[in-house]
Specification:
The protein is of the alpha/beta class. The chain contains 14 helices and 12 strands. Helix 9 links the parallel strand 10 and strand 11. It starts with a strand and ends with a helix.
């Protein structure tokens, strides 16, 4: 009989892959890793656990992955409801960030967000916000895994004065924390419309040199897309592709207004899309073409966005809304069934974050 650190028995285990629930099974953990998932009766014969926890009335499954959030914006929850994205950003969020955002603010907000996410079953998140070292401190204290987006903008904020400052500060934080096993990092230019071509080109160089993913808000509104076509002759994604940003480590957040050519490009480049249905609904941005993305072979993960543009960090709620929106958008009730929505909130998020 093999000795192990922990045995967890549950009424049902949902492994994500393969699909479905396994009744009366056990998960065997040793040295911090899952080493077996098997029927409880077989676990009795094969493993001697130092700790044995029985959960006969529970469902046990992998932790959820919130593939896009701004954790510290929990402290802006409920500000500026019932307005579109640009008004929300320019008149309400950015002025408050200029006034309030500082390391202590980010630490407190991220700590609050982490507590909310952990209580809701989220064990890993992809965060994008200023002072990521302060967020990192909160996540590490609460034992939560996180990808920290290193923000980049072309205008000043309390975090940095210009693109040079954002990149230098972010990479310094990454160098200081890169050996933390529960943390990963990405370069996170806010959006194509807030970051110019010259800065994007530098971001691409750093991403390739340091093997860092690139994540950005993309094609979130009709206004963003039409402005890009007018000013650059390309959709936002087409422009970023021309600048070299796309590839298997490119994470497009929102992707609400993607043309058929955009979807084909995302699939061909092995990119990922993070669907944030509730945020898109709250800001009136639209419904992302999830069915077309999945049919095209694009990996689609699920995110809440920040609490300021959602009001909750509830990934179970996000799964439900995503499934319902996909059905009503296509008129096909078979689109995005429960298993696929669950995969988007777990395995697909893990794939997007590497």
């Amino acid at each position: 009989m093999q000795t192990c650190d922990l045995r967890l028995d549950a009424g049902w285990i949902v492994p994500i892959e393969p699909a479905g629930a396994l009744p009366d099974h056990a998960v065997i953990v040793d040295a911090g890793r899952v080493v077996a998932v098997l029927a409880s009766r077989l676990a009795d014969l094969r493993f001697e656990a130092r700790e044995h926890l029985a959960l006969p009335r529970h469902v046990l499954m992998p932790g959820l992955v919130n593939a896009h959030t701004h954790a510290a914006m929990s402290l802006f929850r409920g500000i500026a409801d019932d307005v579109p994205l640009q008004v929300w950003l320019e008149r309400h969020i950015w002025p408050r960030e200029a006034r309030f955002v500082a390391p202590d603010f980010v630490y407190d907000g991220a700590r609050l967000a982490a507590a909310e996410m952990l209580r809701g079953g989220v064990t890993c998140c992809n965060d994008m916000y200023f002072f990521p070292d302060a967020s990192a401190r909160a996540f590490l204290e609460l034992g939560m895994r996180a990808m920290l987006g290193l923000p980049v903008l072309d205008f000043p904020t309390p975090y940095a004065a210009d693109a040079d400052g954002y990149l230098a500060r972010g990479l310094e934080i990454r160098d200081a924390l890169k050996h933390e096993p529960n943390l990963a990092f990405s370069l996170s230019p806010h959006a194509p419309y807030t970051v110019g071509d010259a800065t994007w080109e530098r971001i691409v160089v750093y991403a390739r040199q340091l093997d860092l993913p690139i994540q950005t808000h993309l094609a979130e509104t009709v206004h963003e897309v039409t402005t890009s076509v007018t000013e650059h002759g390309r959709t936002p994604l087409g422009r970023l592709h021309d600048l070299g940003a796309t590839g298997p480590q490119f994470i497009a957040i929102h992707g609400v207004h993607l043309a058929a050519d955009d979807i084909a490009l995302l699939a061909a480049q092995g990119c990922h899309v993070v669907h944030c249905p509730v945020s898109n609904m709250k800001l009136g941005s639209g419904i992302a073409p999830v069915a077309a993305l999945l049919a095209g072979g694009v990996n689609v993960a699920l995110g809440t966005d920040g609490a300021a543009s959602n009001n909750r960090l509830d990934l179970f709620g996000e799964m439900r809304v995503a499934a319902l929106l996909a059905k009503v958008a296509t008129g096909d009730p078979s689109v995005l069934p429960a298993q696929q929505a669950l995969c988007a909130a777990t395995l697909s998020g893990a794939r997007a974050l590497g």
